[in-house]
Amino acid sequence: MEKWWFGVILLVLGLCFGVRGAPQVPCYFIFGDSLVDNGNNNQLSSLAKANNLPYGIDFPNGPTGRFSNGKTTVDVIAQLLGFDNYIPPYSMASGRQILGGVNYASAAAGIREETGQQLGARISFSGQVRNYKQTISQVVNLLGNEPSAANYLSKCIYSIGLGSNDYLNNYFMPLYYSSSRQYTPEQFADVLIQEYTQQLQALYNYGARKFVLIGVDQIGCSPNELAQNSPDGKTCAERINAANRMFSDKLKGLVDQFNNANSDAKFIYINAYGIFQDITSNPSAYGFKVTNAGNEYLFWDAFHPTEAANVIVGRRSYSAQSSADAYPIGIRRLAQL
């Protein structure tokens, strides 16, 4: 009888407080820029840092290096995937903690090596991939051998969100960079895709099998671009958005290319541009005002969304609310494969 009552008590406690199972994937690896950086730039000699207030004002631990008032999109996705803790930055990840994944993202980083150099130190896409290679060695040591590590890593999700700075802090910054004089927008997009492909192939060669490729969002609609390049301060800078769409369209094509060439892997594309366009076109439908602060606003600063916006983008990336949100499937279904 006592055992029976003890079982009932455990069941009730489970229903009241929730019993979380294991995450949907064993680990989550993140590559990107300031949209998802969570502290890797803190110790770098860089102007691109967010480890001070008002950044992190709504985050449980205060400023951490996240370029928002609170959570980033990958924080939201990590929670939806069932992780109990946020994925640690590479600069702080250690021991068995890395078995749950690592965030390699670096503010001002781009696909191109030179991108963002006027802001100081940053870790480019290729540098982030090199750091991941170091993590692999640690995973092998933790799991005992290479076959076990390879099997483990093949089940993890690899999220890549780069390209924004290649436009903001390279192509559309002619005083510092010559790329806009060397290439047309389409040629530059091709160059970016070519370099992106090389890093994607490297990650595949290093054991990654579940890829999330995140397109560039509406940079031309950010407060900074509205202030500097909009004809009336309200209309998005179409020249910039057109270049972003060109890159993102080619990135979506890369998904088909890699899926066709690698039957043992799955690549998906997240339409960040389309999701953000939906939000900016109908801000009131999502409870947003314009910019500046807190969870009633879309942007936290001149470039970076608020936690409220990140929650919407993260949820739609995960669940693919619309067929246009993700291609060919969303992150939730990718995790199930």
List keywords for this structure.
single chain, 337 residues, alpha/beta, Rossmann fold, five-stranded mixed sheet, 12 helices, 5 strands, globular, disordered N terminus, SGNH_hydro_sf, GDSL_esterase/lipase, lipid metabolism, GDSL esterase/lipase, signal
Q: Would you spell out the secondary-structure blueprint of this structure?
A:
Layout: H1 2-17, E1 28-32, H2 73-80, H3 125-143, H4 146-153, E2 157-161, H5 164-171, H6 179-182, H7 185-205, E3 210-214, H8 223-229, H9 238-261, E4 266-270, H10 272-281, H11 307-319, E5 326-327, H12 331-336
Parallel strand pairs: 1-2, 2-3, 3-4
Antiparallel strand pairs: 4-5
Helix pairs in contact: 2-11, 3-4, 3-7, 7-9, 10-11
Structural class: alpha/beta
Distance between the termini: 43 Å
Low-confidence stretches: 1-19
CATH C-level name: Alpha Beta
The CATH homologous superfamily = SGNH hydrolase
H and E string: HEHHHEHHHEHHEHHEH
- Sheet having the most strands: 5 strands, mixed
Main location: secreted
Family: Belongs to the 'GDSL' lipolytic enzyme family.
Organism: Hibiscus syriacus (Rose of Sharon)
InterPro entries: GDSL, GDSL_esterase/lipase, SGNH_hydro_sf, SGNH_plant_lipase-like
Please, could you describe this protein's structure?
InterPro entries: GDSL (IPR001087), GDSL_esterase/lipase (IPR051238), SGNH_hydro_sf (IPR036514), SGNH_plant_lipase-like (IPR035669). It comes from Hibiscus syriacus (Rose of Sharon). Residues 1-21 form the signal peptide. Belongs to the 'GDSL' lipolytic enzyme family. The protein has 337 residues and is an alpha/beta fold. It has one domain: Rossmann fold, CATH 3.40.50.1110. Helix content is 43%, strand content 7%. It is built from twelve helices and five strands. It has helices at 2-17, 73-80, 125-143, 146-153, 164-171, 179-182, 185-205, 223-229, 238-261, 272-281, 307-319, 331-336; strands at residues 28-32, 157-161, 210-214, 266-270, 326-327. Strands 1-2-3-4-5 form a five-stranded mixed β-sheet. Helix 3 packs across helix 4 (146-153) and helix 3 packs parallel to helix 7 (185-205). The radius of gyration is 20 Å and the shape is globular.
